[in-house]
Amino acid sequence: MSQGLFVAIDGPGAAGKSTLLRNLTERFTGAGVPVHATTEPSRAPLGEFARRHTGEYTGMALACLVGADRYHHLETEIRPAIDAGKVVLCDRYTLSSLVLQAGIDGAPEAAVRCINAYADPPDLQIVLTAPPAVLRERLDVRGSHGRFEDDPSLPEREVELYHKAAAASEQAGVRTVVADTSQGPEAIESLLSGLTSTIRGLWSQATPRIHLMR
Ligand SMILES: Nc1ncnc2c1ncn2[C@@H]1O[C@H](COP(=O)(O)OP(=O)(O)O)[C@@H](O)[C@H]1O
Ligand SMILES: Cc1cn([C@H]2C[C@H](O)[C@@H](COP(=O)(O)OP(=O)(O)O)O2)c(=O)[nH]c1=O
């Protein structure tokens, strides 16, 4: 059996991560490519707890909480799906911790990097972004998903921090695509088609991975 592929989708709140994940999942499923769509925090009890309590847990505490959930998610869901040859699409991953726990909450960046040091790097990281005013408008329509999105000044800082974090991880060797989702339907359609063929291409060439920790 061929090896799967790990794709992380990250970016500020309301950048369009869940929408992209849904669209990619539909395309791959329609094309007969096996997909495992997932999210972080995960749907396991610890992940659900973290998602519900981003108001009470901040900084290092939240970094540890989402970090523990991440390792459990890798062990119980992501790696088995990759080993089964699937394309794993994950809504949020390590960049969220670098941006939200370190950048926004002020946990020491070195500590957040340390917590995440054994988390498998994705084969492809998609970082969605949009102008802060567009993000704020979408958040107003959709409603906040928690503490981070309650703060109207957040999109501005998040956009900048995601750009920096994406550039640093690309520099460190993680294949990264940064895309603006505010460009209208044609641009989104072409982004979706481009990502679909990139992911299919990587998936068809994937070779067995060495997992960082077993
Ligand atoms: N490319 C896009 N253009 C315009 N609106 C979008 C786009 N992608 C998502 N949206 C809208 O923005 C809102 C947030 O999208 P969502 O996918 O939930 O973002 P996220 O998962 O990043 O928080 C939703 O109302 C969605 O319909
Ligand atoms: C993965 C991850 C999520 N989070 C937070 C961000 C969100 O507030 C919450 C995820 O909730 P969610 O409802 O998925 O937010 P969104 O729709 O914006 O993706 O968890 C972190 O703080 N650090 C992390 O590493």
Automatic annotation (TrEMBL):
Belongs to the thymidylate kinase family. This is Thymidylate kinase. InterPro entries: P-loop_NTPase, Thymidylate_kin-like_dom, Thymidylate_kinase. CDD domains: TMPK (cd01672). Residues 9-186 form the Thymidylate kinase-like domain. Phosphorylation of dTMP to form dTDP in both de novo and salvage pathways of dTTP synthesis. It catalyses: dTMP + ATP = dTDP + ADP. GO terms for molecular function: dTMP kinase activity. Keywords: ATP-binding, Kinase, Nucleotide biosynthesis, Nucleotide-binding, Transferase. Its EC number is 2.7.4.9. It holds the Pfam family Thymidylate_kin.
